Automatic annotation (TrEMBL):
Catalytic class of the enzyme: transferase
EC numbers: 2.6.1.19, 2.6.1.22
The keyword Oxidoreductase is assigned to this record: no
Gene3D superfamilies listed in its UniProt record: Aspartate Aminotransferase, domain 1 (3.90.1150.10), Type I PLP-dependent aspartate aminotransferase-like (Major domain) (3.40.640.10)
Protein name: (S)-3-amino-2-methylpropionate transaminase
Length: 468
């Protein structure tokens, strides 16, 4: 196993495998964890197996655990399980802990807020943290127009409220989502989500007035962005009618659907059509937001200025927080009391978000995500050149994926994908899969990971692919 900066004090000053000035230092969160992969038991170890048995007796089977370990501590680029195994984290809790787990600034902000108060409900008595997070998101999200932000607890809530706001503003009911989309697990967001298993199967009936249009999927359809957009727009106009559409909802880069990056021009053409027809253009940046793609928001890669943007995951360093940010006139459309929730914009989560946003803005994490993307693409394109089962390599920044296929037919190979993921897990790497066909391996490392540790993780993936 490659040893990457085994002692905290020996880590380069910027904590990511490069030299940097002392004032750029970011300490690894939690205890001083050795930043190397180290297995002392099989995966899962005896204590994790014991907890898995307890989980089976206490938790419904619908709540699954992808990797059969239980975490003890985490920080930097590693997760240490209850058996003392140190695993490389290439998942960040599904794109949540971009700043690193137990980031010191986040931990300090949370502790200070907990000592002040933990909850009042913003709809009962206000507090400064909520307003400060709203101000930050109004400033950071694309566009210099007047904006408003409402805070919630989960990405699903954010998407659902964005739809409510769009319907209130337009007086229309139809909402257009896209093939391969994932938008959440509530009733409305399940309707918006494309994949049946495991998200929708057996949970209907779903919310009405949801329609689906074809996505730009360059690897599969071969269409340029303009042509793909014209195909989608024609379907919308013929089957729904532009005058009936309240909102067009899309992920700038799809997450659960397979890290699909639409062809250039696809998103901008859809946004232009929406503007021409009085349709609210909603960018779901729950997974792509907050430096994940090498920009603060993925919309920036194509110069998109969404009417509404939904965020969550990377917003608060691991605490539950989500937001809808958008044009003031749209956000102000719902009546007083029409938006909110008991826990929406919880003060502890807001404190974590302010510390997290400060880290993105001032600690070079956006640039680090872009560097990670270059490293990932270089390594994975090299892997593709030597293994025809890697059909496609795609993504932006620290959000990159490989699509595994049968090389003789180009058809998705979910069985191979599952074997590779299991092999990586057994070797000490947290690796996630995704995709409508279950044949995509996604890479979501924390921005605090060192180059050495990332290379080691990618070496393990190569080994697991060869073994499979």
């Amino acid at each position: 196993m490659t040893i990457a900066n085994p002692n905290l004090d020996e880590r380069p000053r910027d904590g990511r495998g490069h030299g940097a000035a002392p004032d750029a230092e970011r300490r690894i969160g939690g205890p001083s964890l050795p930043q190397r992969r180290n297995l002392v038991t099989e995966i899962p170890g005896p204590r994790s197996r014991e907890l898995l048995a307890r989980k089976s007796a206490a938790v419904p089977q619908g709540v699954s655990v992808s990797l059969p370990i239980f975490t003890d501590v985490a920080g930097g680029g590693v997760v240490v399980d209850v058996d003392g195994n140190t695993l490389i984290d290439l998942g960040t809790g599904i794109a949540v802990t971009g700043v690193g787990n137990a980031d010191p600034g986040v931990a300090a902000a949370v502790q200070a807020q907990v000592e002040r108060f933990t909850h009042t409900c913003f709809m009962v008595t206000g507090y400064d943290g909520y307003v400060e997070v709203a101000e930050a998101l109004n400033r950071l999200t694309p566009g210099d127009h007047d904006k408003r932000t409402a805070l919630f607890s989960t990405g699903s809530e954010a998407v659902e409220n964005a739809v409510k706001i769009a319907r209130s503003y337009t007086g229309r009911s139809a909402v257009v989502a896209f093939d391969h989309a994932y938008h959440g697990r509530t009733n409305l967001t399940m309707a918006l989500t494309a994949k049946a298993m495991p998200y929708k199967l057996g949970f209907g009936p779903f919310a009405p007035e949801i329609y689906r249009a074809p996505l730009s999927y360059p690897y599969r359809d071969g269409l340029d962005g303009t042509t793909a957009a014209a195909r989608a727009i024609q379907l919308i106009e013929k089957q729904i009618g532009a005058s009936q559409v309240a909102a067009l909802l899309i992920e700038p880069i799809q997450g659960e659907g397979g890290f699909i990056v639409p062809a250039p021009g696809f998103l901008t053409a859809l946004a232009a059509w929406a503007k021409e027809n009085g349709v609210v253009f909603i960018a779901d940046e729950v997974q792509t937001g907050f430096a994940r793609t090498g920009r603060m928001f993925a919309s920036e890669h194509e110069g998109l200025v969404p009417d509404l943007i939904t965020t969550a995951k990377g917003i608060a360093g691991g605490l539950p927080l989500a937001a809808v940010t958008g044009r003031a006139e749209i956000m102000d459309a719902p009546h007083k009391g029409g938006l909110g929730g008991t826990y929406g914009g919880n003060p502890v989560a807001c404190a974590a978000a302010l510390a997290t946003i400060a880290a993105y803005e001032h600690d070079g994490l956006i640039e680090r995500a872009a560097e990670i993307g270059t490293l990932l693409m270089d390594r994975l394109v090299d892997l593709q050149s030597s293994d025809p089962r890697v059909g496609d390599v795609r993504g932006r920044g620290a959000m990159v994926a490989i699509e595994l296929v049968d090389p003789s037919t180009g058809e998705p190979d979910p069985e191979l994908t599952a074997r590779v993921a299991a092999g990586a897990h057994a070797r000490g790497v947290i690796l996630l899969t995704c995709g409508t066909f279950g044949n995509v391996i996604r890479f979501l490392p924390p921005f605090s990971i060192s180059d050495e540790l990332l290379h080691d993780g990618l070496d393990v993936v190569r080994e697991a692919l060869e073994a499979a």
